[in-house]
Every structure is written in C-alpha cells, then in structure tokens.
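Handout, section B. The chain below has 207 residues.
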Amino acid sequence: MARRTKEEAAATRDGILDAAEKLFVEQGVSRTTLQHIATAAGVTRGAIYWHFDDKGALFNAMMERAILPLEAEMQVLDQAESDDPLVDLRNHMLAVLDRTVNDPSARRVFEIATLKVEFVGEMNAVRQRRKDNMANWMTRAERRIRLAADKGLLARHVDASRVALALWIMIDGLIRNWMFDPQDFDLLALGRCVIDPYLDGLRRGDA
C-alpha cells in the first residue's frame, strides 16, 4: 500500500509540473498563480504546498525535470574527441539548434526560462542557473578553441574567451529570436549560415 501511495504522490507531483509548464507557456510565470496551477492540475492548493514550498520551488523543479538543449548537448560535446576540435564545437552547436526544433518538451521549458519569466524575487534562481550554464559552456568552448590553436588549425593569437563568448551570443541569440516566431526562419539553416562562416574565419585568422 505504501508503494502505491508513493507512486500516486509522484504522479500528482508530475501532474502539477505538467500543468504549471502549460500555463507558464500560455500566460507567463508572473501571471500564473498557484491557484491557476491547482485548478489546471485538478488538485487543491494544499496539494501543491505538500510538494513545493512556493512558486519558485515549483518553477525550479520544472526546470530540473527538463534537460534544456544546451545542457543535453553539452554532455555529447564532452565525449566528442575528433582530430578537429572546431568541427566538434560546430557539430555541438548545430545539435543544440536541432534539439531546440525537434524536442517539444525542451523547447517549451527553454521558452519559459527565456521569454516568460522575470528574473526577480523567487525567480532569481533562474538567473543563477543561466549564469552557471553559460560559465560551463564557455569553459568547454574555450578548451576546444585552445586545442584547435595548439593543433595549428587557427591562429595562435586568437583570444579563446572572446571567441567562446561570441559563439555563445550567436547560439543564444538565434534560439531566442526563433522562439518569438518559429515560422519566421529555419533555425538550423540560419544557424549554419551564421556559425560556419565564423568558424571558417577563425581558421583563416580573420574572425
């Protein structure tokens, strides 16, 4: 009986998170109350408080449940070790764009975290998570850029930290603008048009 109760509690928690995710996408985080979420999930507010301390804790649980495109593909980048570190980095960035387009769950949560939340008060933890993700990505990208320089694949005077920051801005900006209207442009096609010339420029030493 205890096992069944535990499973039911887990199912209720997932139902609350599913309802919150749907409402956050539709009306934003600040305009969504716990009562809205409770009604959509078919539970009481008390049930929500049994699982989460407040809306901030619920939001963080939703974020932790999802694997965002940059986070998921970062693990793939860690395992890629070809003869050309810039190719690994390029393939990683395009894989991030591909997952953004083709993974609906990851895309919804990314949209909420970038376009539907104010980074104040109880939501400030989202800002910190974003900063941490950026720092992790920058560390990995800089390593690839330095490896490419050591292999003689690009000019040694290249500032790895500045190049990594430029690449982060490219991919983050592409995804954010695509999120505003996914029908406006082909994210993968435009990604190739932006990323490939920049990396080619690094090889020539003119980027």
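Note. DSSP finds ten helices and no strands in the chain. Compare this with the example in section A.
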